[in-house]
Design goal:
Blueprint: E1 5-12, E2 17-34, E3 41-42, E4 56-62, H1 70-81, E5 86-88, E6 91-93, E7 98-100, H2 115-124, E8 142-143, E9 153-154, E10 156-164, E11 167-175, E12 180-182, E13 189-191, H3 205-210, E14 224-231, H4 235-245, H5 247-252, E15 253-254, E16 264-273, H6 277-298, H7 308-313
Parallel strand pairs: 4-7, 14-16
Antiparallel strand pairs: 1-2, 2-4, 2-16, 3-7, 5-6, 8-9, 10-11, 11-14, 12-13, 12-15
Helix pairs in contact: 1-2, 4-6
């Protein structure tokens, strides 16, 4: 990730859910963009330009749908113990927004990220390489659910970076889309909706949806992520970068932003470098699309739900 941002995962390999925490070494300016019709987000008031507090201390991504919100309180507890947050007299109040994906149709429907998992993810957060694939928020993630989860494939967590001079961006994405994942460079399908249970043949999800076929009409999908940059941004600029970076969803997901997806992208500004907002947004879109592709390529299979690597092996 970008210098000044640490990442920690907590994974429940039995219940098949988890949480991913990004913590900032210093208070960060943040923005967010929302697409689709099924967003599950918490703490966006901290990102409003009218809010008294101008910064956040981290971001939480998790499974569990709205139940995943519990993990935020564990992260806040760990930050409070480190005296990280907005000082109000003798109290310290961390500001930590979050977004959550629906993984309750995989594994144990009653397994959700807990406060303890949030605490553990925050405690383990570190700089350097980030574990990808079926970990953290991506533990129970799936993609290609036009024919239901029995014809889906594995989603996951992916990380990618992009650079322009001394300005860098890093995207961490947890991919749980209703549609397919395509290689952003070639457009080739990497993972998506399978023709039938047990089949390894992929259909084109966007075409299937356009034709009126499929059983995907419930809000059980979502791709969520964070772009961190060492560029100096205001809240308004961070939101603009997040909106531009959403282009990366369209390059790698087919289709993105459906009425049944809750696509959410945060931007964290943790540095002082300078770059035009439009150029930065284009750079971020590149990182986002690459991270989405990396997420499914790094995922591992479950019984009945293959991963992209299983298709390559054939």
């Amino acid at each position: 990730m970008i210098a000044g941002v640490r990442v920690g995962h907590a994974t429940d390999p039995v219940g098949l859910t988890g949480v991913t925490v990004l913590l900032c070494d210093a208070p960060a300016v943040a923005g967010v963009a929302l697409r689709g019709g099924a967003n599950d987000v918490v703490g966006l008031d901290h990102l409003d330009v009218r809010h008294l507090v101008g910064t956040v201390d981290g971001v939480v991504l998790g499974g569990g749908s709205r139940f995943g919100e519990e993990a935020i309180y564990g992260v806040m507890r760990w930050l409070e113990e480190q005296s990280v947050g907005f000082c109000v007299g003798r109290a310290v109040i961390p500001h930590v927004p979050g977004a959550f994906l629906f993984d309750l149709n995989v594994g144990d429907a009653h397994a959700r990220p807990t406060r303890e998992m949030g605490y553990d993810a925050a405690k383990s957060a570190a700089a350097g390489p980030v574990a990808e694939g079926s970990v953290g928020a991506g533990t129970g993630a799936t993609v290609g659910k036009v024919n239901g989860v029995t014809c889906a494939m594995r989603g996951g967590v992916g990380v990618a970076t992009a650079q322009a001079g001394d300005v860098g961006v890093a995207a961490l994405m947890a991919v749980n889309a209703v549609g397919d994942v395509r290689d952003p460079a070639t457009g080739v399908l990497i993972a998506g909706t399978r023709e039938a249970p047990g089949s390894r043949r992929l259909i084109d999800s966007a075409r299937a949806i356009a034709a009126g076929s499929g059983r995907f009409g419930v809000p059980s999908h979502t791709t969520i992520g964070v772009v961190a940059t060492n560029a100096r941004l205001t809240k308004t600029e961070a939101t603009a970068v997040a909106s531009l970076a959403m282009v990366g969803f369209g390059r790698a997901l087919s289709p993105p932003h459906t009425a049944f997806d809750g696509d959410t992208l945060f931007v964290l500004s943790v540095g002082q470098a300078a770059l035009d907002v439009t150029r930065l947004g284009i750079l971020a879109a590149d990182a986002v699309s690459s991270a989405i592709a990396r997420a499914v390529r790094a995922a591992t299979s479950l019984p009945g739900i293959p991963a992209a690597r299983d298709l390559v092996a054939e």
